[in-house]
Amino acid sequence: MTAPAFVVHDLGQAKAALRAAREQGMRLILVSAPGAARTLGPAVWREMMAEAARAEPSAMFEAILDCGSDPGIALGALREGVKAIVLKAPADVFAKVADIARQSGATIYAQRPDHG
Description:
Number of strands: 5
CATH class: Alpha Beta
Largest sheet: 5 strands, parallel
Shape: globular
Structural class: alpha/beta
């Protein structure tokens, strides 16, 4: 995670961040609020990021959904097609979810990216 990261709470923020990144020719990381997988839901996050990508098709970005410390929610996010998640879990649990993430073509992080 070397690109700048921004926390987004809604579609408007996501579109604005991607527009600015596109205008600057830079790659960006959009990260949900902490624990948003539980409150917002993986399907809503996935669709919000898809809509933002449609609005700015040339923007280069990764969208990361924070699943808190709940491996069940993380697995649900992977089933919903979310391609990048954060999971704070014990090493053995993290390893199991990471294996499933890799099999589904997703990326899993043990911590949130630093953000501005």
